[in-house]
Amino acid sequence: MARLQILVTNDDGWDAPGLAALKTLAARFGDVHVVAPRDPHSYAGHRVTTDAPLVLSSTAPAEYHLSGTPADCVRVALTAMPVAFDWVLSGINRGGNLGVDIYSSGTVAAAREAAFLGKPSIAISQYVQRGRPLDWPESARLAAQSIERLLNQPRQAKEYWNINLPHLETGSTAPVLDCHPDDEPLDVQFCREGDQLTFSGSYVGRPRTEGRDVALCFGGAVTISRLRV
Question: Which residue intervals of 68-224 are DSSP H helices?
C-alpha cells in the first residue's frame, strides 16, 4: 500500500518548534513534505499574494520556505510542485485557534485553502496558558490520536478539521471531543492614548458557550471541529 504524501505547513514560520513537532508526528503516517512561510504570519487570515512574485527556497530535502502567507504555501505546494498530496496538516500553532479565531487564523486558512483545492486537511493549534512553558513533544502526543482517527475516517468533499489542544501538565490525559466552534465574539477592548489605540482584550476572558470548543478546550479537552467550505 502506497504511503500517504503529507504536506505540512504553518503560520508561525518555517523554523517554529511547533512545525518541527508536527513534522515528526506526520512522519508516523506518511512521507512528509514541508512548504512553510519564511516569516511568521500569525493572524494573517486567508490573505494570498497575487501582485508580487513568491520566492520558494529549499531548506532541506523535501522542505521549503516561501516568501508568502500560509494560504500561499498551500496554493504553491498543491498546484506547482510535482507531488500528488493526499493530506495537508497545518500547525502546530503556538496559541489556540478556537471559535471565531478561525477567521483570523493563518493556521486554519492553510487548511481551508487545501479544502478549496480539493484536499482533506487538518489545522492543529496548542492553546497556551500565560506563564507556563510549552512541551512540544507533549503537544504532538496529544494530537496524535486525533490526527490518526481523522486520516482514517470517511470524509466528504470540501471538509477540513480544526483541532485545539489544551495546555496540560506533561503526561496528563485529555478527553477528545467533537464539537462546534463557538460563535461568541472575542473580548474586544482597546486602550486609547491620544490617537493611538492598543488592543487590550483578554483571550481567556472571552465569552464562551457551554459544549463548544472554547469552553471545552479551556476546560482541558482536545477539541475537534469539522468545518466545510
Answer: 70-80, 106-116, 136-152, 213-218
